[in-house]
Amino acid sequence: MNPESIEHLFPTPVFKYRVTENINDDLVQKVHASQMRKTTVKQTVGDLHKQPGFEQFCSIALDNARNALGHWGAEYQDIQITNCWANIYSSQDSLQPHSHPNCFLSGVYYVKVPQNSPPIFFYDPRIMTNNIIAPAKRTKTLYNLGSWGIPMAEGMMLLWPGWLHHRAPENTTGEERISIAFNIMFKGLVGSYENLDALEL
């Protein structure tokens, strides 16, 4: 017997956008011209949103974020990019699971993606699911997977809650992979004094 209904509780959205503007060639040049630091991958410092030449990219990111927040049903005064940086993945470079603190939304834009690149992975945020007894998985579904991969593609932008852990797998292609990551936070009054949940940022 089938259930009368299935309630999908506490979903975690990852919004996917296709950027149609022709910005990638220009971004590749600007990223390579930026000051880099080496962590596990080559990264710029986190202020690309303040640097000349990234205005169009930032405008696209903010427009997509406003669209995502509309689907979210969020009420807010304004939003701003608080951090923005580029990642250059050389051969065998990767980033381990991590989240982005001090923001509401995080995002990534894929500037250059070699063929046969692995997907970006997102992880189930419910810690208790890692410590339960569970049967073997007959089929993989959104209900029983601890992670979910979204294929990378040039011109794709993803947005998700800043607390959601994600991982950029190892670059095994032999060509560099370039992405631009960013964080978004509210600006001005969030909530309301009437509802006793006001916060001015």
List the helices and strands and how they pair.
Blueprint: E1 15-18, H1 24-33, E2 36-38, E3 42-44, H2 55-72, E4 76-89, E5 95-98, E6 105-112, E7 120-123, E8 147-150, E9 156-161, E10 166-168, E11 177-190, E12 199-200
Describe the structure.
This protein is an alpha+beta fold and 201 residues long. It has one domain: Sandwich (Jelly Rolls). 14% of the residues lie in helices and 34% in strands. The protein is built from 2 helices and 12 strands, in the order βαββαβββββββββ. It has helices at 24-33, 55-72; strands spanning 15-18, 36-38, 42-44, 76-89, 95-98, 105-112, 120-123, 147-150, 156-161, 166-168, 177-190, 199-200. The strands form 2 sheets. Strands 1, 2, 3, 4, 6, 9, 11 and 12 form an 8-stranded antiparallel β-sheet that branches. A hairpin with an 8-residue loop joins strand 11 and strand 12. It is globular, with a radius of gyration of 19 Å. The chain starts with 14 loop residues before the first strand and ends with a strand. The mean pLDDT is 91.
